[in-house]
Structure formats: structure tokens, C-alpha cells
Design goal:
59 residues; alpha+beta; four-stranded antiparallel beta sheet; binds zinc ion
């Protein structure tokens, strides 16, 4: 019944999620704490301060 409406909504939600917004969440080093940004690589994040590396788990 509201199939079209649903699709429309899903799409607009996808567009509103920018890579920047996604990265911002996981870009802080869990060891150094919030405030220390991690370098964003293709498939991982690394902390330049303590060397912590976090693999990105993507679909
Ligand atoms: Zn760190």
C-alpha cells in the first residue's frame, strides 16, 4: 500500500548519511579517548598517537 512512500523515505535517509558523518562516530581512538582522531584508511583506522588500529567492518 505505501510501498512507494517507503522507498522514498529509505532513499532520503541514505542520502542524509554522509561518509563524514559516519566516520565522525568511529574516528576517535578508544585508547586515547575522545579528542584524539584516528587516521582514516581504506579498510582501517589507525591512531597516530598510540598506534592502535581498528579494522573497518563494512558490508
Ligand atoms: Zn590512540
Amino acid at each position: 500500500m505505501a510501498e512507494k512512500e517507503k522507498n522514498k523515505k529509505l532513499k532520503s535517509e541514505l542520502y542524509s548519511v554522509t561518509p563524514e558523518g559516519l566516520n565522525r562516530k568511529a574516528n576517535f581512538c578508544p585508547k586515547c579517548g575522545a579528542g584524539v582522531f584516528m587516521a582514516n584508511h581504506k579498510n582501517r583506522l589507525t591512531c597516530g598517537k598510540c598506534g592502535y588500529t581498528e579494522m573497518k567492518t563494512q558490508k
